[in-house]
């Protein structure tokens, strides 16, 4: 992706006014937002709609309400493309309504028939790896029924677990939030170590550790928090963690631990199989969370230290104040490219980001067939987790293009302290 295009978008010079005469057009395109929202999910929708208008303003765009359940229920509505769309770039959440739903074979057949009933022959889905799996099945079911259907996917997820691409929109902004939050929580604990000695911070990420690893982005010295970072890709041993916490606290007076919600034991199963109070999502999988609370209790009981549990929660995926500017740009451009593929007659594929170079960071958009991503899960690269409990510095370099600048924090050592006798 050429740099001057990125500059124009950041300055607002790449925008366009949506005006002109309007007539209905026989070509109908349905757009669906599915799964957990991100802070830039609507940015992709904006890019998609803007490009549709640019290419053929007669196109009839149909919104599907509340994700895949809206597809099955036929909950469709026509989008008024004459209205200004600029606000979409900056609003978190999912303006069309989202949600989770595990599609059965019957659901898929009903969904295709709903599209046929509405005479919709093009569907664009914005979602995570579960949504891309649904895209793949939707293509197959339409072929089985004999209904002509174009299907294009636009990726999004804060977990960054979609295969075949460098990263997903939504992840950089979530990583930016996590990195800043953990740095500030570490500074806070350092100030209060005579009252509270250990802080266990839990992040999202499900079965992969990309987001959890971002917590160490601002760590420059050994004494900086987080001191221990545990990701699902490495089997977790609670006794090893307790021993490490004890050693670090004895040396520094405090210890910050960051853990993924999907932390796995030696058996390979998530420690919190029951999820948040047993909450089960409609997609057929548990809503993970609470592992930090279990570890807090273990540290307190085994070491007798004051330990607090902090769950960074839903803010990780929806904090508009932590959005990465580059994340928003990439999300919009992916939406634009998806619109272009429709008019080129493409189907059965997802658009994705390809990293062309590390320094300076450059990128482009490529298309990936659904069968290359459906049902797959991209784990955190093993090179970033060579040693259990630590994140390799090379991950910071990979992540750095997306992170907002932060003022460097100083320590007491940087103050010029006078001897007490000199002040008397």
From TrEMBL:
Recorded metabolic or biological pathway in which this protein acts: Carbohydrate degradation; glycolysis; D-glyceraldehyde 3-phosphate and glycerone phosphate from D-glucose: step 3/4
Chief subcellular location: cytoplasm
Annotated binding of Mg(2+), by residue: 129
Named cofactor requirement(s): Mg(2+)
Pfam families per record: PFK (PF00365)
Cell location: Cytoplasm
Binding of diphosphate, residues: 36
Regulation: Non-allosteric.
Active-site positions on this chain: 159 (proton acceptor)
InterPro entries found in the cross-reference section: ATP_PFK, PFKA, Phosphofructokinase_dom, PKF_sf, PPi-PFK
Listed GO biological process terms: fructose 6-phosphate metabolic process
Keyword DNA repair part of the UniProt annotation: no
EC number: 2.7.1.90
Domain Phosphofructokinase: 28-342
Molecular-function GO terms, alphabetical: 6-phosphofructokinase activity; diphosphate-fructose-6-phosphate 1-phosphotransferase activity; metal ion binding
Record keyword Nucleotide-binding present: no
Enzyme class: transferase
Binding residues annotated for substrate, in chain numbering: 157-159, 204-206, 261
Protein task: Catalyzes the phosphorylation of D-fructose 6-phosphate, the first committing step of glycolysis. Uses inorganic phosphate (PPi) as phosphoryl donor instead of ATP like common ATP-dependent phosphofructokinases (ATP-PFKs), which renders the reaction reversible, and can thus function both in glycolysis and gluconeogenesis. Consistently, PPi-PFK can replace the enzymes of both the forward (ATP-PFK) and reverse (fructose-bisphosphatase (FBPase)) reactions.
Xref: PANTHER family: ATP-DEPENDENT 6-PHOSPHOFRUCTOKINASE 1
Quaternary organization: Homodimer.
Protein name: Pyrophosphate--fructose 6-phosphate 1-phosphotransferase
The encoding gene: pfp
């Amino acid at each position: 992706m050429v740099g001057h295009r990125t500059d124009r978008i950041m300055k607002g010079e790449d925008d366009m006014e949506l005006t002109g005469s309007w007539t209905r057009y026989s070509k109908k395109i349905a757009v669906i937002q599915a799964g957990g929202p991100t802070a830039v999910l609507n940015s992709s929708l904006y890019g998609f709609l803007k490009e549709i208008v640019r290419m053929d303003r007669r196109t009839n765009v149909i919104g599907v309400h509340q994700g895949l359940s809206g597809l099955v229920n036929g909950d469709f509505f026509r989008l008024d493309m004459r209205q200004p769309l600029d606000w979409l770039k900056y609003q978190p959440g999912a303006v069309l309504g989202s949600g989770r739903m595990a599609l059965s074979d019957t659901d898929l057949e009903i969904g295709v028939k709903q599209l046929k009933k509405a005479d919709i022959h093009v569907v664009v889905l914005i979602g995570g790896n579960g949504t891309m799996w649904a895209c793949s099945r939707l293509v197959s079911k339409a072929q089985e029924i004999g209904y002509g259907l174009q299907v294009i996917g636009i990726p999004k997820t804060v977990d960054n677990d979609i295969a075949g691409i460098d990263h997903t929109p939504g992840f950089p902004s979530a990583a930016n939030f996590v990195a800043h939050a953990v740095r500030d929580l570490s500074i806070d604990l350092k100030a209060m170590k005579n009252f509270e000695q250990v802080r266990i911070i839990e992040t999202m990420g499900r079965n992969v550790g990309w987001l959890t690893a971002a917590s160490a982005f601002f760590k420059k010295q050994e004494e900086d928090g987080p001191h221990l970072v545990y990701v699902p890709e490495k089997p977790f041993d609670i006794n090893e963690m307790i021993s490490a916490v004890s050693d670090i606290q004895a040396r520094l007076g405090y210890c910050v631990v960051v853990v993924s919600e999907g932390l796995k034991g030696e058996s390979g199963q998530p420690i919190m199989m029951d999820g948040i109070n047993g909450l089960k999502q409609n997609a057929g999988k548990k809503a993970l969370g609470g592992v930090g609370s279990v570890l807090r209790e273990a540290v307190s009981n085994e070491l007798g230290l004051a330990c607090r549990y902090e769950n960074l929660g839903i803010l990780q995926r929806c904090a508009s104040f932590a959005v990465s500017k580059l994340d928003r740009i990439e999300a919009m451009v992916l939406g634009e490219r998806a619109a272009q593929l429709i008019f080129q007659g493409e189907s059965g594929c997802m658009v994705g980001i390809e990293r062309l170079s590390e320094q300076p960071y450059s990128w482009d958009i490529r298309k990936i067939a659904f069968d290359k991503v459906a049902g797959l899960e991209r784990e955190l690269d093993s090179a970033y987790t060579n040693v259990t409990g630590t994140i390799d510095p090379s991950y910071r370099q990979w992540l750095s293009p997306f992170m907002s600048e932060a003022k460097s924090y100083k320590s007491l050592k940087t103050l010029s302290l006078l001897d007490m006798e000199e002040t008397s």
